[in-house]
Each structure stands twice: as C-alpha cells, then as structure tokens.
Amino acid sequence: MTFYALVVVVVGQYAWLRALGTLSERMLAKASVLTPVFGLFFAFVLLGETPDRAQGLAAVVILGGLLLGGGAAAAQRPEVQGMERTLAAA
C-alpha cells in the first residue's frame, strides 16, 4: 500500500509539474479549482464511496462558479482581452 501511494504521489506531482510548464495559467487555475470535484469523483469511482448531499452541493457550487466566472464569455469581454494583451507585453 505504501509503494502504491508513493507511485501515485510521484506520478501526480510529475504530471502537475509538466502541466505548469506546458499549459496556460487560465487552464491551470481551472484545474486547481476542480481538485475537490475530481477527488469526489474518483472516491466514488475507485473506492465506491457515496457522496452525501453536502458534498454534492459543494461540487455543484464549484462547477457553477467555474462556469459563471471563467468560461468562454469571460474571455470575450473587452476588458479581459485588454488585460491579456497588457500581461503578454510585460
């Protein structure tokens, strides 16, 4: 069990460090926000745990916030486009 846990941690950290160097900041932020949702999903799939109402509600709130705050509509707003150009020029 300890060996399995070490392998999971090492592979997970390696994947995260590769993502830091490859993906955009926006994509990494979305992945970070979804960490609890992924944990809930994999606990259900791999361990057979059933989420309770509070966990389900929390997942819905996280997904809703992600959709409302960081979706494609935000990227199309002029102030966001101007900020991206300013950050890219720096």
Would you mind describing this structure in some detail?
The protein is flat, with a radius of gyration of 17 Å. By secondary structure, it is mostly helical. It has one domain. 87% of the residues lie in helices and 0% in strands. It has 6 helices and no strands. The N and C termini lie far apart (47 Å).
Per DSSP, what share of the residues sits in E-state strands of 2 or more residues?
under 5%
Taking all Cα atoms into account, the compactness measure Rg is 17 Å
Cα shape? flat
Q: Secondary-structure element sequence?
A: HHHHHH
Number of helices: 6
Uncertain spans, ≥5 residues at pLDDT below 50?
A: none
Measured between the Cα atoms of the first and last residue, the distance is: 47 Å
Helix content: over 70%
Q: How many strand elements?
A: 0
Average pLDDT number: 80
Number of domains: 1
Q: What does the largest sheet look like? A: none
Oligomer: single chain
- Structural class by secondary-structure content: mainly alpha
Keywords:
90 residues; mainly alpha; 6 helices; 87% helix; flat
Structure, briefly:
With 90 residues, this protein is mainly α. The protein has 6 helices and no strands. Helix content is 87%, strand content 0%.
Q: What secondary-structure arrangement, pairings included, does this model have?
A:
Elements: H1 2-22, H2 25-33, H3 35-47, H4 53-70, H5 72-76, H6 78-89
